Amino acid sequence: MMTNEDTLRWLERVADVLHENREYLTQLDSAIGDADHGINMDRGFTAVRDKFSAMASMDIATQMRTVGSTLVSTVGGASGPLYGTAFLRAGGAAAGKTELAHADVVAMLDAFLGGIVARGKAQPGEKTMVDALTPALAAAKQALTANASLAEITARAAAAAEEGMKATIPMLATKGRASYLGERSIGHQDPGATSSWLMLRSLAEVCANM
Amino acid sequence: MKKLINKPEDVVKEELEGMQEAHPDLIRVDIEQQIVIRKDAPIQGKVGVISGGGSGHEPMHGGYVGVGMLDAACPGAVFTSPVPDQMLAATKAVNGGAGVLHIVKNYTGDVLNFEMAAELAEAEGIQVATVVTNDDVAVQDSLYTAGRRGVGVTVLLEKIVGGLAETKAPLEQVAALAKKVNDQGRSMGMALTSCTVPAAGKPTFELGEDEMEIGIGIHGEPGRRRVKLAPANDIVEMLTEPIVEDMGLKAGDQVLAMVNGMGGTPLIELYIVYNALFQILKGKNITIARNLVGNYITSLEMAGTSITLVRLDDELTKYWDAPVHTPALRWAM
Prior knowledge:
heterodimer, A: Serine Threonine Protein Phosphatase 5, Tetratricopeptide repeat, B: alpha/beta, 2 domains
């Protein structure tokens, strides 16, 4: 079971990891974008960090919604509305729960991806965050059906996200700024898929130590 | 990185403060909300016209706030879309009870953030119409891209639509004119150098001494093709032909032509570009009835130019000529 302490620990880890990878994400975004993904995500989660002490006493749904609205208000670019909506919807899926059972965590991931698809309308294969999150959700659902532990479910999700992220390298971008490059987008890893993987890897790390 | 800045993280804030100090008669800058508002907004019974986008394209959009053009502008971080909070605050600040027009450049970030803002404004009972500019011919508009980018036409549209809005025309009419300008205009740009985002500290891409990038956007993102440097006349040909073809411009047509500097190109070169453009269009019997030559939609210090042509008729000419007084454009008043 995940408590609001565990989710907060996850969000703290995400904030640290996105800060550490700020340069890397920006560099990926230089190749096929406008060189601001790392800067934007770091700015967003730095603003989220300022709310951590307040979030300690919030239930999980409210924590997620707070992250979502903070990201919408600070990240800018496409990532703000996309990740913002993702966290807002994840919060919706956790409504009324004081703890998350394994199925609830998977339901949150489902809602998270649902938010991104609803806002951005990308499908798999377009070289976006959806390409990391879709296989991650599939792996999580499969692990859930197999009665795996939460550590195992989230580890499989993170591994699938990593594969999905790497699979964006040969893809032709048909969404977002990368799509203006046409064939020149091929051979580069998508920054959004990378930040999605980092979030899921952080979740797996926290669940492994619960 | 050699820039006339202080700390990279303070660039936008200090720029906005400088604009307020330089133009207290025209604009009111809300530093908290990070929006630039026309001094006498809201004007009762007038459609409020707002736009916004990443900083780094000055004078767009903050420099276009004032009489006869934008009522408010929402500057984001450099090359980053502004956030819905800004657009909502701007929408409320310019709401004179006749609705608000959002002018949105076609970039996924801008579109999504403005979309969320419009939803929030509608929820508060403010009628919002949205026009998306997508004039860039460098990108194929297809199922396989995010669509054509909004570039130079945005500036010309803001002026023309601002002229109509000043007459207190209703929202539907203002939105229809906006759509018409977008449909009648096309652009294409090129770069001799990249540019450096202050927070990133190094150029977004590298261009060799003898290379140029054709079909760039306005965010330092690489363009469609990288080719060997060519003389100005050839470059202008490479930009103008696709525009003329895409627009179906014919002999006898009248156009508004903007030769725009990307920020790092001197005026002496922009006039050489205009000369080449003039000759090409003259050869096709196309008349440049109105023009702008200068820095109007830039990409920090990128060296390069973009050309925008808008097919004119009496209506568009009338509202182009209408009085305007903003930090960047002023005529007839």
